[in-house]
């Protein structure tokens, strides 16, 4: 599974817009700064089973006027790391035992970072663990029906907790063969009809043929309810319903499924336990009153309630190699290095920043993954600078990254828009206004800037539009002239200033103009 | 079926009025003519005849003896009858009193006082035969199974008694006369061509009235006469175990028909198929559960001796019975044997059969709705025939399966005469030949006849298995037994579970009494009515109603009340309001039809007068979910009880008190009536009582702890479920705390903790445990709100405040990407309400928590 962190959360992993074709119109000598077309290494990488794969490796032609193909997403990920695939290949070439160790260590750690549940250790939720384990044990051993919700922000270990509990539960003797498990996910079972079929299929009731469930919705519901009604506490096998993304089930019509599941859990039928997993704190308010009344109101909260000291400890444990690592000496060397790292001041600063930003372990995993990919044969241990680099990379602003790749003309337009925003306090503007502002600047500084024709400026403006740095506030109308379409700038002034700081070979006048619109005075 | 007849059949008096009563203005008659327009036949039924009367279940009409016929002052034809009860009409718990097996065709002389013996003459279907038997007497072998009933005992609602001699002789008398009348009825059919079938039925009727030896005569007569149809039919019947109701229906339809030859053959074939099925069916009753209701399968043995023992002219009944029950299990195999010997082509492609059968079954299931548009009669006929065909396919399959398992069948069949064996060997061949000649307009019917030359498209692809129609809903059993509660706390927890139904519901005595009185009075009056029960969730509405029904059923069993049907539907357990019809009909009669059809059937059922109909009590839970735009479901539900003959009592349950006024149209609300009851939320004293009654003097809770829980819950919602859940959680906490030490009682501290867990707002805790930047973001939002005075802000505005705050705190300020991540994280927790993230900096943000809560949560640090 290609998973780098949680796809549903991280803004870095939003669906990438398609590759944009950037055309320079009119054959105009539009590039005053040919350095803009530097050689760039674009690394795209994806993960498959813990392996880092090199996906794209392209060198851009270094002559002007050539259309460049690059996605905004790829730019945000311009990485200076050496991907592991290369390191592995090198390792094999050198044939050293060290290389073997490193690739093994990377494999173990990557697996740990990618499959969050596989970490196996839970931090600071012993109380919740105990509660859930007792609850499920009573269901299986005594046949007691129950319902509970596990609530916590994304990445707080809800599923990990449940999986750990189930793992321990299944090792108990009196539980074996006494528990049927039904797993549903709100993202997959989008309505009750699909959910019912899935339940029936997983329970393998008698109306299942092969892998298919036939019959109408009404028939299936009646069949399932009848099946569950027939059972009783002492003789029927308890059924555990796990509803992942519980909040999505709430939006089903009439909440029929939830009502029925909770109703069974509150009546003398087949013992069932309904466990819902959700990240919404207001979940109880979403339940209908009669559904809510049937829910037992057990809520298990996971809050990431650890402090920075524990965070450092988690960092150490996550990065440490296990005791059963084949090469003992390497493992020891690695682990002492990790110990040193955790005491290092810069590393602690980096971690502190990360901790301040987000407490969940997924962020930490993602961060460590970046650092880990720097490890090669020639660079066998993670250093503080690696972590620092990774943190910088992790924290880069995606929009500012896009600004780095713009031409000076486009930068100028953005600066003009920034001034318009300052003057009109965020009111929308149109192309004509931007062009006028730009003209004012050109007139003042005619000696250093080439005065572009209006169509060229228009083209540059449309490029900004394509990059979604500018957004029209109304739908483009065919009748309305393009010059007068109202727009808004999707960049904050701080972002622009930051981007200009690192923009290579930026004309001084442009920088001055950006700092103050009144520089001509 | 009854509806069909009603529309087609006219009733007229036979003969001149006998006598008239001037005072009552009634005119008595000796007989009634039933003329069917469609078949152009007339039947005459006279006083003293046995008749079938329309009932709730079209497959099982009531049996009665016609005592009197008269026309009352309003020119309405009435009849006075003596009822006979079928076994299925006797309450199941009373059937044990019989202490013996009951034949499917056995009826009981009805002496139950409650039933109305004065019925409308239009409900008479046709004449039948009821033969009185001594208690130890075996029913004679006869051919016309579906039309002959046996009576041995009488039933007065409490116990079974043997027939008194005078009743016995009276019945016998009537019976003899009945036989004569049956034959005389022929004279009313001018176009009658007496077919072999007709002859046969006649002879059977006659033979049935005579003692056994006649059988042999019939047998020989049939084997002598080479009338193939009659013989085939006869020999098939010989092995027949029981008749299915569908087959019976078929015969009722077809016996008086003198239709063109090919049609007759078609019907005949179907009959044969039915018969074959009947023979096999007892082995696997569940396989056809869906379509066919078996009544008294095991109690219908009388036909087997016919083939096995008919050589013996003298038979001792006791011994006879014995042997024949032994052979009962084996008898179906014979059919298979013959079919195998005859090298029936069906047997060869038996591998294809399962799919075919399923396919057919599935098709038939869909059929009734599909063919609704056509003439109803032909439609029903088609369905019938299709069912019959499917069943016969199923049979062939089953018999093939069982071929290996029973080799002993050979010895059994060898006892029968060679001549007869010859007869039966030839039947399958004939059968296929006959089915080949069937020419019906319906193509699907033709293709489903199990000839080897089947159209290939009808056989399903091997990769697509079909739903087994006979699936039983069941959850697998557990492997280890459940543990018994070991400690006091565990025991208490078990009792405090909402599902543990207490012996009596405390604190709802008044409501209980009201509902009980309402239903009881309606039951006694045999009228219908509605009651609307409202109350917030967890106030014991459904529990109270169920308890009322339990005690009423108890009373009915003890004969303090007339017996009644109890049905329960729940709006939440339906996928669609119209499914309510389907569920009601299924609970009432066991039929499974589509929603529209069910609505029609139910409407008919409740609007037509049905003699002997029991009162139906229907509990409709979660009534508000039956709301549709046109409200026709609710309208119908509340309209039926107002019908004169419905005897329907409806108890509707919902949460809101003013539901009738709020969502119902006037015509619906008016039909619901004003009998309303509302369940108030429990007060703390009541909750306290509920807990202590459940604990039942167990030393698990401190008195104060119980009081705390009840006061807390009563103040919040008065929901008993909540109360019990808190107590249960408190026992868990207590158990967890006292794991090391001795088990102790649940104290205030435990209860407080449980209440805290369940009712505390999660927001404050969530904010406190959020990361630093998330907290700063919330602070920035507060600052922006205060600045703008509007409780909504864009991310850009908040970002500026955030930068200022970060500078004040002296921490590195986050980038916009990070801020967006924070924003979406808080949005996922619903601490914030955010728009879709496509708007980037223009994204608008609102707090989902009150500002005070946020400030409180952030201040404490």
From TrEMBL, chain B:
InterPro entries: AAA+_ATPase, AAA_lid_10, ATPase_AAA_core, BAH_dom, BAH_sf, Cdc6_C, ORC1/CDC6, P-loop_NTPase
Biased composition (Polar residues): 434-450
Domain of life from the UniProt record: Eukaryota
GO cellular component: nuclear origin of replication recognition complex
A single GO molecular function term of this UniProt record: chromatin binding
Comp. bias regions, Low complexity: 405-416, 458-468
Keywords: ATP-binding, DNA replication, DNA-binding, Magnesium, Metal-binding, Nucleotide-binding, Nucleus, Phosphoprotein
Composition-biased stretches (Acidic residues): 417-426
Nucleus in keyword set: yes
Gene3D superfamilies for this protein: 2.30.30.490, P-loop containing nucleotide triphosphate hydrolases (3.40.50.300)
Gene Ontology process terms (BP): DNA replication initiation; mitotic DNA replication checkpoint signaling
SMART domains in alphabetical order: AAA (SM00382), BAH (SM00439), Cdc6_C (SM01074)
Record flagged with keyword Lipid metabolism: no
Record family assignment: Belongs to the ORC1 family.
Role description: Component of the origin recognition complex (ORC) that binds origins of replication. DNA-binding is ATP-dependent, however specific DNA sequences that define origins of replication have not been identified so far. ORC is required to assemble the pre-replication complex necessary to initiate DNA replication.
Summary of subunit composition and partner proteins: Component of ORC, a complex composed of at least 6 subunits: ORC1, ORC2, ORC3, ORC4, ORC5 and ORC6. ORC is regulated in a cell-cycle dependent manner. It is sequentially assembled at the exit from anaphase of mitosis and disassembled as cells enter S phase. Interacts with CDC6 and KAT7/HBO1. Interacts with LRWD1 predominantly during the G1 phase and with less affinity during mitosis, when phosphorylated. ORC is composed of six subunits.
Name of this protein: Origin recognition complex subunit 1
């Amino acid at each position: 599974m290609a998973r780098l962190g949680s796809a549903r959360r991280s803004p870095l992993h939003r669906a990438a817009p398609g590759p944009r074709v950037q055309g320079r119109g009119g054959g105009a000598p539009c590039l005053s700064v040919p350095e803009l077309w530097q050689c760039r290494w674009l690394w795209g990488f994806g993960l498959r089973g813990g392996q880092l794969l090199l996906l794209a490796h392209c060198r851009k032609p270094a002559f002007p006027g050539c259309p460049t193909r690059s996605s905004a997403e790829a730019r945000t990920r311009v990485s200076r790391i050496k991907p592991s695939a290369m390191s592995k290949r090198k390792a094999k070439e050198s044939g050293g035992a060290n290389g073997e160790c490193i690739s093994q260590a990377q494999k173990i750690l990557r697996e740990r970072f990618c499959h969050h549940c596989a970490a196996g250790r839970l931090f600071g939720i012993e109380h919740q663990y105990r509660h859930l384990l007792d609850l499920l044990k009573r269901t299986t051993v005594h046949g007691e029906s129950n319902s509970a919700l596990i609530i916590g922000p994304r990445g707080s270990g809800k599923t990990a907790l449940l999986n750990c509990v189930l793992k321990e539960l299944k090792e108990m003797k009196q539980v074996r063969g006494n528990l049927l498990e039904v797993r549903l996910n709100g993202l997959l079972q989008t309505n009750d009809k699909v959910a019912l079929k899935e339940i029936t299929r997983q329970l393998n009731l008698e109306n299942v043929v092969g892998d298919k469930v036939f019959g109408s919705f009404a028939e299936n519901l009646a069949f399932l309810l009848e099946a569950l009604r027939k059972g009783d506490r002492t003789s029927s096998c308890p059924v555990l319903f796990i509803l992942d993304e519980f909040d999505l089930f709430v939006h089903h019509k009439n909440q029929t499924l939830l009502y029925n599941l909770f109703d069974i859990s509150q009546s003398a039928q087949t013992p069932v336990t309904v466990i819902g997993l959700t990240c919404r704190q207001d979940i109880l308010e979403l339940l209908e009153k009669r559904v809510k009344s049937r829910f037992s109101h057990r809520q298990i909260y996971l809050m990431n309630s650890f402090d920075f000291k524990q965070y450092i400890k988690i960092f150490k444990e996550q990065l440490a190699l296990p005791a059963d690592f084949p090469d003992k000496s390497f493992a020891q060397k690695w682990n002492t290095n990790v110990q040193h790292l955790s005491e290092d001041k810069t590393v602690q600063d980096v971690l502190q920043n990360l901790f301040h930003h987000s407490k969940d372990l997924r962020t930490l995993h993602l961060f460590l993954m970046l650092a880990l990919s720097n490890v090669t044969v020639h660079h066998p241990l993670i250093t503080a600078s690696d972590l620092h680099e990774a943190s910088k990379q992790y924290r880069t602003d995606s929009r500012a990254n896009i600004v780095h790749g713009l031409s000076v003309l486009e930068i100028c337009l953005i600066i003009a828009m920034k001034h318009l925003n300052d003057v009109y306090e965020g009111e929308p503007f149109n192309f004509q206004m931007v062009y006028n502002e730009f003209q004012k600047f050109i007139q003042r500084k005619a000696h250093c800037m080439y005065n572009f024709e209006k169509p060229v400026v228009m083209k540059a403006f449309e490029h900004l539009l394509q990059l979604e740095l500018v957004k029209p506030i109304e739908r483009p109308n065919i009748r309305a002239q393009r010059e007068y379409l109202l727009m808004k700038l999707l960049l904050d002034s701080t972002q622009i200033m930051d981007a200009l700081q690192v923009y290579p070979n930026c004309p001084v006048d442009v920088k001055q103009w950006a700092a103050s619109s009144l520089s001509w005075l | 079926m009854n509806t069909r007849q009603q529309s087609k059949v006219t009733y007229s008096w036979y003969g001149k009025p006998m006598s008239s009563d001037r005072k009552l203005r009634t005119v008595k008659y000796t007989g009634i003519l039933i003329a069917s327009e469609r078949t152009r036949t007339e039947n005459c039924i006279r006083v003293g005849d046995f008749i079938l009367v329309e009932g709730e279940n079209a497959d099982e009409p009531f049996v009665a003896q016609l005592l009197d016929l008269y026309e009352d002052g309003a020119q309405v034809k009435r009849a006075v009858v003596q009822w006979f009860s079928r076994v299925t009409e006797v309450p199941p718990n009373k059937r044990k009193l019989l202490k013996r097996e009951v034949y499917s065709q056995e009826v009981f002389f009805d002496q139950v006082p409650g039933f109305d013996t004065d019925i409308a003459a239009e409900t008479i279907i046709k004449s039948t035969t009821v033969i009185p038997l001594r208690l130890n007497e075996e029913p004679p072998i006869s051919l016309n199974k579906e039309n002959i009933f046996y009576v041995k005992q009488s039933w007065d609602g409490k116990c079974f008694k043997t027939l008194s001699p005078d009743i016995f002789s009276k019945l016998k008398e009537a019976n003899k006369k009945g036989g004569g009348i049956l034959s005389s009825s022929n004279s009313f059919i001018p176009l009658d061509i007496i077919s072999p079938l007709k002859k046969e039925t006649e002879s059977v009727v006659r033979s049935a009235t005579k003692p056994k030896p006649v059988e042999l005569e019939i047998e020989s007569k049939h084997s002598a006469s080479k009338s193939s149809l009659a013989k085939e039919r006869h020999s098939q019947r010989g092995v027949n175990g029981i008749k299915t109701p569908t087959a019976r229906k078929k015969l009722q339809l077809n016996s008086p028909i003198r239709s063109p030859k090919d049609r007759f053959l078609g019907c005949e074939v179907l009959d044969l198929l039915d018969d074959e099925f009947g023979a096999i069916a007892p082995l696997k009753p569940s396989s056809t559960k869906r379509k066919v209701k078996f009544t008294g399968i095991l109690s219908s043995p009388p036909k087997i001796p016919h083939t096995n023992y008919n050589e013996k002219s003298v038979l001792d009944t006791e011994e006879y019975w014995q042997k024949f029950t032994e052979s009962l299990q084996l008898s179906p195999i014979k059919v298979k044997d013959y079919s195998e010997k005859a090298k029936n082509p069906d047997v060869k492609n038996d591998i294809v059969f399962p799919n075919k059968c399923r396919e057919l079954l599935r098709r038939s299931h869909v059929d009734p709705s599909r063919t609704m548009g056509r003439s109803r009669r032909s439609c029903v006929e088609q369905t019938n025939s299709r069912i019959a065909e499917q069943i016969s396919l199923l049979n062939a399959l089953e018999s093939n399966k069982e071929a290996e398992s029973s080799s002993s069948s050979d010895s059994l069949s060898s006892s029968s005469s060679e001549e007869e064996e010859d007869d039966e060997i030839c039947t399958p061949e004939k059968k296929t030949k006959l089915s080949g000649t069937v020419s019906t307009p319906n193509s699907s019917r033709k293709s489903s006849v199990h000839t080897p030359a089947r159209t290939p498209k009808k056989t399903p692809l091997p990769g697509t298995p079909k739903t087994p129609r006979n699936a039983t809903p069941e959850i697998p059993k557990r492997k280890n037994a459940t543990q018994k509660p070991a400690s006091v706390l565990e025991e208490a927890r078990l009792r405090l579970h909402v599902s543990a139904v207490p012996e009596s519901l405390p604190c709802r005595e008044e409501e209980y009494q009201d509902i009980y009185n309402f239903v009881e009075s309606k039951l006694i009056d045999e009228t219908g009515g509605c009651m609307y029960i409202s109350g917030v969730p967890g106030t014991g509405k459904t529990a109270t109603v169920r308890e009322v029904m339990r005690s009423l059923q108890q009373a009915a069993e003890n004969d303090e009340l007339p017996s009644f049907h109890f049905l329960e539907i729940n709006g939440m357990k339906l996928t669609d309001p119209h499914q309510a019809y389907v569920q009601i009909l299924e609970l009432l009669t066991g039929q499974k039809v589509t929603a529209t059809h069910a609505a029609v059937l139910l409407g008919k059922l409740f609007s037509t007068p049905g003699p002997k109909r029991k009162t139906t009590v229907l509990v409709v839970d979660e009534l508000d979910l039956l709301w549709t735009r046109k409200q026709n479901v609710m309208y119908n539900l509340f309209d039926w009880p107002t019908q004169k003959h419905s005897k329907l009592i409806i108890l509707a349950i919902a949460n809101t008190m003013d539901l009738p006024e709020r969502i119902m149209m006037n015509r619906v609300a008016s039909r619901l009536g004003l009998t309303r009851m509302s369940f108030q939320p429990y007060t703390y004293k009541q909750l306290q009582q509920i807990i202590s009654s459940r604990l039942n003097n167990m030393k698990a809770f401190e008195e104060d702890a119980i009081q705390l829980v009840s006061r807390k819950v009563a103040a919040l919602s008065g929901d008993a479920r909540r109360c019990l859940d808190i107590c249960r959680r408190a026992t868990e906490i207590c158990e967890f705390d006292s794991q090391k030490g001795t088990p102790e009682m649940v104290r205030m501290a435990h209860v407080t903790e449980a209440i805290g867990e369940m009712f505390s707002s999660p927001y404050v805790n969530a904010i406190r445990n959020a990361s630093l930047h998330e907290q700063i973001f919330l602070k920035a939002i507060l600052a922006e709100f205060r600045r703008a005075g509007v409780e909504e802000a864009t991310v850009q505005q908040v970002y500026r405040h955030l930068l200022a705050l970060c500078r004040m705190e002296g921490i590195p300020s986050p980038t916009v990407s990070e801020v967006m991540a924070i924003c979406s994280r808080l949005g996922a927790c619903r601490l914030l309400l955010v728009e879709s993230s496509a708007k980037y900096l223009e994204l608008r943000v609102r707090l989902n928590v009150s500002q005070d809560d946020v400030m409180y949560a952030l201040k404490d640090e």
